[in-house]
Amino acid sequence: MTSLLLIAAGLVGVGAASDTGADAALVRLTIRAVAATQKDAPNDPRLAAIAGSLDDFGKDFRYRGYRLVSAESFALGWRVSGEMELPGRRSVSIAPLHLTPDGRVKMHLLLHGGHPEHAARMETDFSLPEGGTVFVGGLRLGDNASDSGEVLLVGVTVDRIPPRPNPFRVTDLNANGRAPPDEPAPPPPPPPKPVPNR
């Protein structure tokens, strides 16, 4: 069985413009299904936004050509999952978990396998800064050995991270996914000074 891999690639440009209202609290991300080949092939111009990340990825894994199979953008609340269908009767779901202290988004990704007789499944957590891209892949794109030999890569790019709430609330989660401890109660005001009798 082909092994699965998870590789964080270089950063790409910062994402969407500022939002207003409820949308400002959502994580915006794009999932791309990419066919990668080790044969010489031109890169799909529709992948220009993540071209630098693909170049970095190709240096490690010797891929020489990429084409976009499908893409979908999401605006997700914390711990709300988005799902996208992939080639070969597969799908990927992703949910932003929380904001880390250094301003990255920690995410949970689940890659659902294809045919029941040789199902593959991958579940992983990772964190990315705004504009960062990670690739998950390693599965043959087609259903049988006579196919082109292309490999399916799933690219996840964080387009926008909502600002950290200020002040930081007890309900917000820290880097371990747990709520921070309650802040100590403020000290009581000092008692009034006695007024001298005259």
What characteristic shape results from the CA principal axes?
elongated
Range of strand content: 35-45%
Main beta-sheet strand count, sense and barrel state: 5 strands, antiparallel
SSE run: EEHEEEEEEE
Would you report the number of β strands? 9
Mean pLDDT: 76
What is the first-to-last residue Cα distance?
A: 95 Å
- What is the total number of structural domains? 1
* Rg from alpha-carbon coordinates: 23 Å
Q: Total number of helical segments?
A: 1
Helix content: under 10%
Task: Give the neighbour order of strands across the main sheet.
Answer: 1-8-9-2-3
Low-confidence stretches: 1-19, 167-184
Coarse structural class = mainly beta
Task: Characterize the structure shown.
The protein contains one helix and nine strands; from the N terminus they run ββαβββββββ. The protein is mainly beta. It has one domain. The strands form two sheets. The protein has a five-stranded antiparallel beta sheet with strand order 1-8-9-2-3, covered by helices on one side. Strands 4-5-6-7 form a four-stranded antiparallel beta sheet, with no helix packed on it. A hairpin with a 3-residue loop joins β4 and β5. The N and C termini lie far apart (95 Å). Residues 1-19 and 167-184 have low confidence and may be disordered.
What are the main properties of this structure?
198 residues; mainly beta; five-stranded antiparallel β-sheet; four-stranded antiparallel β-sheet; 9 strands; 6% helix; disordered N terminus
